[in-house]
Amino acid sequence: LEIAAAAEGARFPLATDGRVLRWDPDDEAVVPEASGLERWLGALMVREGLLYDAEGEFIEGAFEGDAVAPELAIAGERKALVIDPEAMGPRLRLARALREQGKRDDMLIELERLLELERARVAAGGNAAAGPGLPAWALHELARLRWALADRDDALELADEITAAAGPASAGEAAVLAAQAATWATARDKPALAKKLAERARALSPDVVTRLRDAGAYHVESGDVAAAKELLEAAKLLAPRDLTVLELLRRVKAGKAS
User: Fold this and answer.
1) How far is CA 197 from CA 122, 157, 254, in A?
2) Cα separation of 148 and 36, whole Å?
3) Are 235 and 179 spatial neighbours (Cβ–Cβ below 8 Å)?
4) CB 106 within 8 A of CB 92
5) Which value, to the nearest 10 degrees, does the dihedral of the CA atoms of residues 106, 40, 135, 138 take?
6) Spacing of C-alpha 178 from chain mean position
7) Percent residues over pLDDT 70 in the chain
8) pLDDT (tens digit, 9 = 90+) per residue, 4-34?
9) What is the sign of the dihedral through the CA atoms of 223, 224, 227 and 230?
10) Tens of pLDDT along 91-110?
């Protein structure tokens, strides 16, 4: 049963367990948007209420280009979560908005909460565990943030868990994470785990070195040295004699990223 559609093309079906889902045409992903219909409507009203004045006109500064201004977007999702604390959609959008603002510590908190909610939902079993759950990108981002900001052994454990369970739809992205996690395992002096993760990366996506090399090259050109180095070190671990990877790493280490 579809209950609503948005102007940008998103559609909102009602799941058998009462949750409101959201289907996004951009990536064709289905994400749980709200824990129930009433809470979905309440969250929609408070989020939209931040954008209008008493006369029903958009408030000044509500938008930057075609998008809601970042601080308003963050405030709107936080208000939505007061009404529906278990809602996945608003928390995912909040995490992305925090990432765009460079607030990685706050993003880590939201992603940890999402994982906690998802595991509780699955543990409940029955209808509660049916249907879509936490998207792969959020799990992958959580593993990377744990490595950068929190417990590195927890980061490795999570990366191992989620890449082992990766399906066809997320195999390419999971292969990149597995390769990066192999470098983490090497840094933690866990050679057996590093070998397992490297083999998994190749099995998930035979072109994983190309993915890593191309992404690394992009970050070299854009000047993001840290991101480039992480991706290229993972590519080097899988293909230590790849001349392009070695040259890109030389540029990064020489500080010549343009």
Assistant:
1) 26, 11, 29
2) 35
3) yes
4) no
5) 0
6) 15
7) 95
8) 877 677 899 898 888 899 988 776 678 889 9
9) positive
10) 999 999 999 999 999 999 99
